[in-house]
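Fold this sequence, please.
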Amino acid sequence: MFVLVEMVDTVRIPPWDFQRPLNEAIAEELNKKLANKVVYNVGLCICLYDVTKLEDSYIFPGDGASHTKVHFRYVVFHPFLEEILTGKIKYCSQEGVHVTMGFFDDILIPPESLQQPAKFDEAEQVWVWEYETDEGAHDLYMDQGEEIRFRVTDEVFVDTSPTGPSAAEKEAPAQPGQATTSAPKEENKEKKEAPYTLIGTICEPGLGLLSWWNN
């Protein structure tokens, strides 16, 4: 679930921090920059583990700060595929069951990966496993806040770094005497995508709500 990732970065230390030990100032700057951030194709950064190498520090003309190239190891949340994790149900929707780990919320178990047969209860806004027994079917509800065990089947990274306007968004120059029109800003808004999403499954014996298997 948590891995150590080797990284290299140039850290800028402002002049008012020169009186502090260099390692301490660098650790604070690295955590300020990376903690709780998703690095593309790496995972969710948690905290600095250690600094393995400091190269020479430089002060550039016009900038009173020092710049140091730092080699370090960072603790990253990046489960491997097929790893089994335990979280809590955040909420349910037509898209599936949304799970949180407390520090990481972008986990989705799609409908086809639930224990089958499953149905979505529109009134309660929960998914239900229609568990078959000799006495008939029993509805097992996947309620918000319940602990759930799932297997990681896929991961999705989305590059959310800022980009310039696309060519289609640029207005064509107006001809003499011709009024310009533009689409309302609301129509151009896109749904914000999560930079890192885990896809899971509970469609196996022993997976799903812990209460199902503890009774």
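The chain has two domains: 2-77, 83-158+193-212. The first strand starts at residue 2 and ends at 13.
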